[in-house]
Amino acid sequence: MSDNKNSSDTNNEQTKSLNFIEQFIEEDLSQGKNDNRIHTRFPPEPNGYLHIGHAKAICLDFGIAEKYNGKCNLRFDDTNPSKEEIEYINSIKEDIHWLGFDWEDREYYTSDYFQKLYDFAVDLINKGLAYVDDQSAEIISEQKGTPTEAGVESPYRNRSVEENLELLKRMNNGEFDEGARVLRAKVDMASSNMHMRDPIIYRIMKVPHHRTGNKWNIYPMYDFAHGQSDYFEGITHSLCTLEFEVHRPLYDWFIDQLKDSDYRPRQIEFNRLNLTYTVMSKRKLLQLVEQNYVEGWDDPRMPTLSGLRRRGYTALSIRNFIDKIGYTKYEAMNDITLLEHSVREDLNKKANRVMAVLDPLKVIITNYPEGEEEELETVNNPEDPEAGSRTLPFSREIFIERKDFMEDPPRKFFRMGPGREVRLKSAYIIKCEDYKKDHETGEIIEVYCTYDPETKSGSGVSRKVKGTLHWVSAKHAFNAEVRLYDRLFNDETPDGHKDKDFIEFLNPDSLTILKNCKLEPSLKSAVKGEKFQFTRLGYFCVDNKYSKPGAPVFNRTVALRDTWSKIKKK
RNA sequence: UGUCCGAUGGUGUAAUGGUAACACAGCUGGUUUUGGUCCAGCCGUUCAAGGUUCGAAUCCUUGUCGGACAACCA
Hints:
- The chain is an alpha/beta fold.
- The chain folds into 3 domains: about 20-270, Rossmann fold; about 280-350 and about 480-570, CATH 2.40.240.10; about 355-470, CATH 2.40.240.10.
- About 25% of the residues lie in helices and about 20% in strands.
- It is built from 13 helices and 25 strands.
- The strands form 6 sheets. The chain has a 7-stranded mixed beta sheet.
- Strand 23 and strand 24 form a beta hairpin.
- Helix 2 (about 50-65) crosses helix 11, helix 7 crosses helix 8 (about 250-260) and helix 11 packs across helix 12.
- The radius of gyration is 31 Å and the shape is elongated.
- The structure holds one RNA strand.
């Protein structure tokens, strides 16, 4: 099964209304801006793994380029060598490809532009638009003012061009300690926009960079690098999240000093992805990893792309989900059930149905000849005729799900109980004649049934019975580990409480490991990443970390919709 | 007491001056050898008040509520 197969879902754009970004772009196109060229970029910082919120940006950046016959660059925003690692770069590239996008040969790094940015800084100094400030971070911060009060100008603001040039050179030579001096743009300390109050554009960091080594002792701030990098790359539309809206005037100010034509990237901000029952900030995800609340960035409970992939989510289901939630300027909270719906929708069409009993209860069919066995045919996927069929071994002793038997069942329980008849899926109708119980513990040990040989599946003889159960032949089943995942948090907005830390809302039952599951023999050869529907239970995927050849470990991606559990609650 | 940005069912989006639509969730019921899938049905006078207009979710004004902004992070 391929994750990246495009279905018609992604191709019905002609009937779909444009989002506000596409509208802006089509306006620009109709006005002939940038010679009708469309060029976007996805600019991650390589300081963590990509999560589903990044996927929203990726789908937009690459999607817009695809839709309008343009290009999308991948650019690593690597301006802070103290936080960034090559491991992250590799995972980011893998995740983008997995989602089904490609940047061809346009893999760029902000560090590629360090020299150009430095030259631009020198240029600003020469124009009297930048200065070296000798004050400490604390003092600079105090002088910045507040959103309602203007800041005050630094005493170093009007140094001579020569002195500024000299000091910048010495900063970069490593002659000063980290934090001793910074380079600031000379904009407006009284601006109502805090970002315009003489922002810091270079700081001293005596840290080797993963690409430039020890060449630099000063590194540009993000705000001094990002907009210009877009400009250097000829980006026409810089799409980013809402919080950068207030940065836009500063980016424009820098480009004003830099540009030599009418061209300038147009920044458009959209809402970030928020999901119920999870957290999305990289800082918080990093905390979950570092403090071992999860097993790593790719823990199947994480909203990271590697986590979702390991959980069994398909790339298409994530893309469809993102398509459904849309892009607006309203800070929305998206219901996780829509993501779950998207993966069920995709897997329903693609995943073969198989027999797996997670909590086994033995059933002995007393009138089935001892030692006899037969192969019963079963359809692989009723939603996909192409999927064909296979056979299932059947014999006198089988396992059913413990929950499918009740000693004293209520009226609406359509499963097995004393004297009741149920169908075994793709096999026979059986009737419960008796059962053995451990009176100490109350545990049901075995159930004794008779089968009706006339009711074999496909024989045409079928009485109406209310329930159909999944099962595996005891003799042919093999034991496997199955991991049931639930939501990582039991609160809708774990990081939305002012007085409580999000860690307090961790769901203690987010992972249940079952070691004694009975699986049909065909599953023995399942390969890493392969996806199935365990009949009546949910969608499961072969774990790519713990599985061994011949000994697959299964992750539950998502349970099937469960009407019975709702009836039970009433 | 600042600047910027928002507000349409429980949730997310659409309607771009002309009958408020779609999806998810929830609730009914039907089909079913998965209590799955599928099918049918139910669930909103668009934050408020004024204005413009034959006509306003849409345009204007004022207000209310929410978010962002004061890292040598990105």
